[in-house]
Amino acid sequence: MVNNDSPITSYADLKGATIGVPSLSSSAFAYFSIGLAKAGIDVDPEHGDITWTTIDEDSLGTRLTNGDVDAIMGSDPAPLLPVFNGTAHVIESNEQEPFCCSVALNGDFVAKRPEDAKALTEAWLKGSDYLAASEANRKEIAKIEVDNNYVAADQSLIEQVLETYGWEASATRFREAIEPGIEDFKLTGYIDSSIDAGELADTVYADLGINR
């Protein structure tokens, strides 16, 4: 995200920029490093083309608005707050990716209790279907999250964020997405270039007999 008056419009424009990020081990840093690397930008935190500034997630929007950084990146909802407030806009996101994110199961759990692992995964898929079915269902879930303090945000904000997501969860299509994702991540230097993407994908993916 950048302020509305920023001249930055793409990854390529971020060369030499100062970017606020929750941490250098966050999923947002890992994901957006791929786009930056594809744009020819060295993302190395110590010697690269970006000045990385770690910022408490709740303060990302404020630091951007104040002009302390040129751009911010992070996971919802914090980076979206200045966008919802009308002072900033999104220049890059993972909207076009097959999946925004994933949930991983412990390897020992999968190996020792595969039927339970399958049932849990199918429950997650069913939950995604429920959210996809209607806006009313998404509002219902937002209320549950607020009433049980699952998310530190008010209900209207959660509702706004949920409307930015797609709800097309899949176990089979996820395996198809892992391998090219590994190849992309190798561009950043955070995965060794000698790693075989197919072999690593097979290592981290377990076929539980789910056909969607």
* Beta-strand share of residues: 5-15%
Oligomer designation? single chain
Helix content: 40-55%
Shape: globular
Largest sheet: 3 strands, parallel
| Poorly predicted spans | none
How far do the termini sit from each other? 34 Å
Q: What do these coordinates show?
A:
- The protein has 212 residues and is mainly alpha-helical.
- The chain is 43% helix and 7% strand.
- The protein contains 9 helices and 5 strands.
- The strands form 2 sheets. Strands 3-2-4 form a 3-stranded parallel sheet. A two-stranded antiparallel ribbon has the order 1-5.
- Helix 1 links the parallel strand 2 and strand 3.
- The two termini are 34 Å apart.
- The mean pLDDT is 93.
Defining traits:
single chain, 212 residues, mainly alpha, D-Maltodextrin-Binding Protein, domain 2, three-stranded parallel β-sheet, two-stranded antiparallel sheet, 5 strands, 43% helix, globular
In a nutshell, what does this entry contain?
With 212 residues, this protein is mainly alpha-helical.
Give the secondary structure arrangement, pairings included.
Blueprint lengths: L1 E2 L14 E4 L5 H12 L12 E4 L5 H6 L5 E2 L8 H4 L3 E2 L17 H6 L1 H20 L1 H13 L7 H8 L9 H15 L10 H8 L8
Parallel strand pairs: 2-3, 2-4
Antiparallel strand pairs: 1-5
